[in-house]
Amino acid sequence: xxxxxxxxxxxxxxxxxxxxxxxxxxxxxxxxxxxxxxxxxxxxxxxxxxxxxxxxxxxxxxxxxxxxxxxxxxxxxxxxxxxxxxxxxxxxxxxxxxxxxxxxxxxxxxxxxxxxxxxxxxxxxxxxxxxxxxxxxxxxxxxxxxxxxxxxxxxxxxxxxxxxxxxxxxxxxxxxxxxxxxxxxxxxxxxxxxxxxxxxxxxxxxxxxxxxxxxxxxxxxxxxxxxxxxxxxxxxxxxxxxxxxxxxxxxxxxxxxxxxxxxxxxxxxxxxxxxxxxxxxxxxxxxxxxxxxxxxxxxxxxxxxxxxxxxxxxxxxxxxxxxxxxxxxxxxxxxxxxxxxxxxxxxxxxxxxxxxxxxxxxxxxxxxxxxxxxxxxxxxxxxxxxxxxxxxxxxxxxxxxxxxxxxxxxxxxxxxxxxxxxxxxxxxxxxxxxxxxxxxxxxxxxxxxxxxxxxxxxxxxxxxxxxxxxxxxxxxxxxxxxxxxxxxxxxxxxxxxxxxxxxxxxxxxxxxxxxxxxxxxxxxxxxxxxxxxxxxxxxxxxxxxxxxxxxxxxxxxxxxxxxxxxxxxxxxxxxxxxxxxxxxxxxxxxxxxxxxxxxxxxxxx
Length: 605
Hints:
Blueprint: H1 2-25, E1 38-46, E2 49-64, E3 68-76, H2 80-83, E4 86-87, E5 93-96, E6 99-107, E7 115-120, H3 121-133, E8 146-149, H4 155-163, E9 180-183, E10 186-187, E11 190-195, H5 199-210, E12 215-219, E13 238-246, E14 249-260, E15 263-266, E16 275-290, E17 296-312, E18 317-321, E19 328-335, E20 339-346, H6 352-368, E21 375-385, E22 392-400, H7 409-419, E23 428-438, E24 443-451, E25 455-456, E26 461-470, E27 476-483, E28 493-499, H8 501-511, H9 521-529, E29 536-550, E30 553-555, H10 560-567, E31 574-586, E32 590-592, E33 594-601
Parallel strand pairs: 4-17, 11-12, 19-23, 24-32, 25-33
Antiparallel strand pairs: 1-2, 1-5, 2-3, 3-7, 5-6, 6-7, 6-10, 8-9, 11-14, 13-14, 13-16, 13-20, 14-15, 15-18, 16-17, 17-18, 19-20, 21-22, 21-23, 24-26, 26-27, 28-29, 28-33, 29-30, 29-31
């Protein structure tokens, strides 16, 4: 008897649970929605408890962005009278007659009333359809501000917008039936909750995300120990999209709109609008609401990873519970005035990964080293690639005279090139950076070069004396011996260029542009690993021998017949190559400058 009661109780609980989600599945289309209808929305204002707020429909804006409508509502209840629309509410489901009409997604800045745009559920469901078909990405639009002709809208809706001060008088032309108007209705800001970043770092990295989305940056302690109760993870729950986690962390916070089994929809607008994506999805806990006249914000922490976001589209993000994404393991060791190590993970994405690594490395440098004044930095970068035994290793040294930290570009560029290469999908498994910093000017300028003789014979050895001027130190002299090639043409000239790595690269781009157009993944790796080192003096001996490059490979001094055939070839990938001999002299300084001298080959030899 007791067991029978337990079974009956369990069945009742299951029925209640199922009936709750059946209500969530029932939807209402915009054609059924009229001004004055009242309903409710669901979101988290504190902790993990889902609370209701009241909603009144003001009207429907027709043909909002590419044949999609937008529902205008006024929200009341809870803290909304005090806060207005809250960043982090994006995705809060809205119901009328217990039918889901869409998600709170858009708003006005500085509006006194909590008036919002609701993305219709029909447009959001299309994202799940896209996910099921795994279609290609839809390019992001340039501007989410809405504009249309007044004569396409209900005059009552326009009047209500005007009464709330959302259409300024000077914006309304006299002939409203033919003139366009602008509504500053934009996606609600998505709070990017970060930890491990100091104030200076946040100030510097804010523009990075300002370019790709609407984010508010706030510090918060990372609490990844929250239990993942999937039974309570339902429409109205707070959701976090983690993009960095570990010693440094960053998560975009929003609200779940719809759940069908393991499928979820959230936000009602994109994070960045990347299309197909692969981002970790986690539960979240709201600590408090930071009220502001500009934009009030939910202060929250991510919880346990419970799935992944697979779509980031114009009208919603979509994800799967129980599927997980692999992140890139990163380690940044800063050796300088303080020795600090950061261990963290970033998402694997062609667009986001370079930006996130830049954000993390910039924070590590700015948090531990001085930002103003001269400094030299030695960078050692290791990038682990799947199916490759040895990591890609890149080393170089740089000088920075100001707060720009431009050497970070030399960390980001190879990551970007690998992720966006045309030859194969490069799955990055790990990134390790060691940055050694000294607060000094370590530059030496190439001041002058002298040769033992200007008239030379084939096979003759020539002594070149290179004079350097290190910063605040005495001149230094470096002797270099070069041998004139045996097959040099009598009566010809030899140009000798002594320069730094940057000038050497510019000369190479002019003489052998094919070197910078790799034709395979291995050539790309070779290009990354074998870049000129900034502490080397590069001596280039340019000869009057003509060659060519084909598909990234050099063909110096080919037979004239071959050269003629290839130069007249009807295919691309063939570029000129001037024969040269290169000699590199390692030094203790960062070399800067360029000097040139000509030698003449004795025509009697």
